[in-house]
Amino acid sequence: MNVKVFKIIGDGRRYMKTWPMIRQLGCYFPEYRVVRATHLGIMFMPFFAILAAMSQVYVNGWAFLPQAIAILLFFISLPVQGLLWLGWRARHPLPLTLFDWANQLSAKLTAMGISNKPLGPKACYLDMAVILKVAFDRLDRSYWEEL
User: Which of 60, 79, 122, 141 is most buried, most CB within 10 Å of its CB?
Assistant: First the structure.
């Protein structure tokens, strides 16, 4: 495997931990649903993979071991696919509308006296997630209910 794939998976894991799990953001960004599904997949898919493979071998016998391994690999690959998508999305550049919105949010935080790093010209979704996380921790609930 290429080292770049492992870096993307690591970025996906970092992005998953950084993204604020706010239900209101789920209407605008798919990350809310992908992070939840990937987190559940990381917790439960190894168990389901082993269960499915063992039941395949138990019911059909050792002759179906290749099919059982294929089923096992399929179940294991589901959370990895989520991490790959999140890693790709974390490094994807922001569209201009989101860039402006994140800069406005950053300016609002700076006006409140909260130090944060402003977005640079090559801002990505991970940078926006950091600002959203700080904003969620510091801003009151009325701001998020306006969304």
Answer: 79
Phi, psi dihedrals of residue 140, rounded to the nearest 5° = -80, 170
Secondary structure (DSSP) of 23-67? GGGGGT-THHHHHHHHHHHHHHHHHHHHHHHHHHHHHH-GGGHHH
Q: Residue 11 in contact with residue 91, Cβ under 8 Å?
A: yes
Phi, psi of 77 (to 5 degrees): -75, -20
pLDDT of 109: 86
Tokens of 44: 């439960």
- To 10 degrees, what angle do helices 65-90 and 125-138 make? 80
d(CA 37, CA 19): 14
The residues that bridge with 88 in the sheet, in sequence order, are none
